[in-house]
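Researcher: Can you fold this with FE2/S2 (inorganic) cluster in place?
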Amino acid sequence: MFSTSCHYALQAMIYIALRSGKDKNVDLASIAEELDIPKHFLSKILQLLVKNKLLLSMKGPTGGFKLSMPASRINLIKVVEVIDGLDVFNRCGIGFKQCDDSSPCPIHFEFSQVRQQVEEIFETKTLEQLTTDIEDGNSLVSLGLSTKIKK
Amino acid sequence: MFSTSCHYALQAMIYIALRSGKDKNVDLASIAEELDIPKHFLSKILQLLVKNKLLLSMKGPTGGFKLSMPASRINLIKVVEVIDGLDVFNRCGIGFKQCDDSSPCPIHFEFSQVRQQVEEIFETKTLEQLTTDIEDGNSLVSLGLSTKIKK
DNA sequence: TAATGGCATGAAGTAGAAAACATGTCTTTT
DNA sequence: AAAAGACATGTTTTCTACTTCATGCCATTA
Ligand code: FES
Ligand code: FES
């Protein structure tokens, strides 16, 4: 459904939300290692997120990344928008060039409906909700990673 | 969501269901032209479908492709299975390597639910239903193509 | 102010999907 | 039996997403 870059971006944002704080940055190497993402590739993706004002970056020792605004104000769709663009939520299920009610493919009406549900999930879920879920042990950030995270 | 090959395969199957008959084959060139798919590329995809018993092919003049069984017995998921494989319906929405209830990513429970709805659409919809929809003018086979098709 | 640890940037390399090409083989028609 | 029209097969090329490499730049710290 999304590109690898987008997957990486989403995972990284969640991870940063979890591990950074007002005065605490998370550095690239840690994110890359913990999420098992190629470091230099992730670097480019995070730079995009910085450029689009979802992240702040600091150079130098103690530098790294942190959220540019409260986790409660960042939903997943903002991340998708920056990396893959929003038209992923408007693509035909069987590859028609156009997808709208006026030129429907044979599965258009059913498909566009569930596609909208996905969009709503990404619209509704904020980084804050996700980190809460993770801290409560209801979900994971990455496979190898312990769910027990000290606040 | 699916690969281009898979899109092409789905479109072609629908088109063949619509235009072929017990004694009527549809030839590659027509399909490729009408659906605007690169001819040689489509050829390979149809060969895969032949190999997997969803299509029959005939050589020589009057040759071409037709369904290997009644349109009512072919659902879309069979086509997806041959081209992309069934695990597209089991992939994590944010790119986790594994997706199951025991190691859920932060959106797993919501996401896997709508993903299953998509699977059900592809499971339920048969080529017969789709061609009926098209013949009734409720949907289209391809953008440039008239919906009025003589039975 | 020099050293160090971090991000920023651009170029280069890889792999796999997508597309194009060339040739072979079969079947109908004449 | 020959010609022509179609699918079958294998190779090559192109494109793009993904990954890596090399270097520059900036801020903290000693
Ligand atoms: S046209 Fe196919 S899903 Fe809308
Ligand atoms: S683990 Fe992410 S959707 Fe199931």
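Model: Folded with FE2/S2 (inorganic) cluster in place. Residues 4-85+126-135 of chain B form a domain with the Arc Repressor Mutant, subunit A fold (CATH 1.10.10.10).
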